[in-house]
Amino acid sequence: LFRALREAQFMKMDLRRSHPEAAGRISEVFCAWVEVAMVHPNVVQRLIVRKVVAQRQLGSFDFADLDICLRLVDRPGPGNDVFFTRARAIVSDESVLPQELRSMLSHLETMLFFLKYAKTEDIRLAHAEFRRQSGRLSHDIAGHLARAELEYPAGAELVRLSENHGNLTEAAEVDAVLEEILNSARGSKADKLGIFRSIFYQWAIVMRQRFDLLVLPHHTQVICLLVFRSFLESKRTLRAESRALIAQVGTGEGKSMIIAALALYVVVVLRKKAHVVIDDDTLLERDFWTFKPLFDSMRVPGNGGRPISSRACVAEKRLATFAQDDPRLEEMTARVDPEADICYCEAKHVQSFYASIARGNCRDLDEGYEGRVLILDEVDALIIDEEPNEAFVYPNPDLSRLATTVAESLAKGVSAELVRESLADSSNPAAERVAREMCQEWVRSQHLKANDDYVYVQDVGRYCGVQGGRANPKTWSLALECKNFKDRLSKNIVFQERLFVMSRPRVFRKYHRIVGLSGSIGSSAERTFLQQTYGAAFFEVPPFLRTCSGSPFHEAVPVALGTKRRAVYMESSAEEQLARIADVAFEARERVPVLIIARDRAQCDELVEQLRIKARSRGLGEASDDVVRSLSRTLYEADSEQWKDNLNRSTLPLGDAVSGTKCWRVTVTDPRGGRGTDYRVDDPSVDAHGGLLLIPTAVPMSQRDWTQFLGRTARQDRHGQFCAVLCEADYATLSSKYGEALPTSGHETSVDCVQAIISLGDREIASRIHSSAALYNSGVRVNELCEELFGRRRELLEDPIARERLVELCQRVRWMSVREIDELAARIPGFDPKTVPTESLDLGRPQEAPVATCSSPASTSADSSAPSSDPPTSFASSRSCRPATSSKGVSCDTALASLPSGVAAGPAKIVIFCLDTSLSMLAQDTGTSLSRFGMCVASVRRMLHHQVREQDVVGVVGFGNTLETAVEPTVKGASADSIDSRIASLQAQRLGGTCFFDAILQCLQQLGKAGSELPQESPRWLVCLTDGDDLGSRRENSHGELVTRLLETNPPDNLNMVMITVGRLKERNIEVINGWVDQVASAGGVAQHLCERNASAISSAFSVVAECLETEVGGATEC
User: Fold this and answer.
1) Sign of the CA dihedral 141, 143, 144, 149?
2) pLDDT tens, 425-481?
3) Terminus-to-terminus CA distance in the chain, angstroms?
4) In terms of C-beta density within 10 A (0-12 exposed, 13-18 middle, 19 or more buried), how is residue 546 classed?
5) 902 Cβ partners below 8 Å, 6+ apart?
6) Residues 715-725 pLDDT 10s
7) Whole-model pTM above 0.85?
8) Strand 594-597 and strand 692-696: pairing?
9) H or E element in which residue 788 lies
């Protein structure tokens, strides 16, 4: 019925006008359902129903949202009078949309929880809790904490609440409290809170208008803000600890309020601008609009005061979802507004802000940063674990004119050979490169596919590139320039060059100060990275309840469950792990709800199916599907309404306590559900039995992630517990690598094994950071030189020779040591790199350069070995699990940003793409409008057009629960359109199972047979992508044995291999794949395993493949 109601809205039907009796009848039906379905049916629920039915446009609000809202107010009347009064006012407010009800009702519940303990807060306890960490703090931070205690001592509280105060929900009492805050803000010279008191007062006014409730900051929040204030006002020194300060603030402790207050302090007191980085677009918008009224209520002092300007920076596709007359558009932007006082944005927007400065005519690229403070919600943005450097492209007017001349000749039918000959004697040093690239891209433009590679955009009057299924006018490629020229949509070719390299950590360091708040600061390796790279110091904000007299505070505790009565199990196989999970989960569900956090989404989906089978074997029958529910990302992307319903019901009881049949559900989620998802528990019987039970099936490598997992239980003043059921195979490789066996003994609630795994993960992170230090330092040095050239020596770039040298420098940054970079920079006429100070250390070459392209003496003259000492600044990369080598000992990844243009010479090649077509590939988690499978197909089609030449042989094999040869190995030539059509028509399978190993075997066999008419030296390429473990290959190949044997005994000639894995595979399977990579590399081939953490990296992984297949730099994105 609800879906029919929504469909009527989509069809622009207004039932209130056309069928008023039907609208009334629908409300009656829903209200009757409420009486049956809810435990405590009440008037507020009926008001919700009427509000929703009467709404003209529900948008994304679905039946699961309605059910959740109804259950948020499903509580007995006695003791909940205040809640019902406020909830009724919210629901009755015509300006509140149904889409806002859930968040507002949840917010109301949280506010009342904190208000319940407001009178028991003890400032002495708060300071004592902060002092407990004094032994772990740096000298400076200990001083800031001591200063905060002097400024906010007992007796100087914001408001002196006690048990003598009346009911804090009564209007008169609230008025008295607000008056006390206001009087102190106006007149007390002894008051040390300063601007914060005014901020707290204005926030209380805003929230009272919205909820008619008193909202006051906790003592912990006030002290945290005073520590940050002391840090920001302290004199900046050259000591590392003075640059950044990061606070660990637990989930639900009011982190977003601290951030908003800090941003206002930066603007009003420091007279600087604040960039607030929240790397989650949903949370970014939520927090911005929550605190927007507070920002609007404050003014910047001076000249009568001016309003504070605040903006939310969101993606262009998000902006496109708003109606043109929506007033919110005035407060939102796709790029950082340089004039805004407060800008909520993502880390990518901070980088784009720097790019806009680099592209301008500013002589000092540090200009403006001293006037800005970076405020971070979570430190993930600082711990950059991928490529640390980013290249910018710039248009070259001279080369654009030259390219246009070439295009005119090609359009008249002049051959590529004659075009190149005509420019052979040109005085421009880039002429040969321009001619070569133009001839190649002219041919390539003929194979661009409308809607796949480009679309016509009427607003700009030309073709624009397609990224993630949408037109992006900022995407540039030379082939698209040629296409627009040929179709007379442009009269000129815009030729762009890579002329600038940005080091992302270095850009973050430019800010006046960095302050961050994070649920967990992380492992010792991550802390060391933050200290060395950003000069960060740390402190912890104690939980609010620990500072309340006699108030209960609970942490998740290990609990011994299962037949062996242990809190941590380490099983020897996946089968034994499954049996143990079932044993623990079905025992516990008799008393409490159970949440299983799977290793990854693939295991999550498998566990749901297997646990339902086990539930049926225990006599639960058809109820098994209700008892065991999924919260995997796969389900969310396929059916978000069902996902929300499962989340809502994950902590609701089954059966009836009176009849003795009351029990609970077992919910299975992936790691994403172990971070940031709130599992609401309000049944007293659950708390009496220890609280929501977590069953992690894998311990994450990062302490930060483990803290997030445990944060799903023991929320607010409730109990929580966990029992980990792990698989030994998941940690075999890591344990072997560091020569440490995981502990298997200990008392029944021992968590030594968990701590040992986190310790190994810490070492792994430290190893990655150290191994990537050279690339980080090389990037820093090139960034410094680029800034000098663009900022203070821009006149040098007018020399074509200088620009060619700079292009070479920016393209080859990952191949050169710091010394080699300076030597190459010294070849720029009129430029002496010795005059440019540097923060970088010379740790040798990050990677070795291909012999065939080392044209510069600087690239071969230096010793490539790196010092063994630890670098003072470093960077972590997780692009590949293992280094990949070619026949010349060269990493494929080396070619990504560095190889010069030109199709690789030599005989035709054979390429077989092996793609996962299993059900999980339909997941919509690529960060684009495409599914995983859609992104794969788009990437392969793009390579077919651009990297596979007419004379090359190409084949495509798909694998799910069965194998499918979509394209038999075929010479591209005249079959290009047919091959492309068959690839485009590929579909993911709707059944489970992944014959991964069998598919690899079949592809290798095809490579051995294909191309018999080609020269013996023709290279053979196998490119494979899978997003999960093998779950369907034949028994004799269940661990890839047949593949390994073929590679050892009779591999295809000239074999090269690129394996892309998405998500976390079993350690055993990773080891098998890495073994294949080693075998191919030792035989002289190019071999690489790209191990991507999430599906958003699929496109970039295929970019590596493209660079391996063709050493080409054909396009870039303007920044």
Assistant:
1) positive
2) 888 888 888 998 899 899 989 888 887 788 888 778 889 888 655 677 777 889 999
3) 49
4) middle
5) 436, 437, 440, 1111, 1112
6) 888 999 999 99
7) no
8) parallel
9) helix 773-791
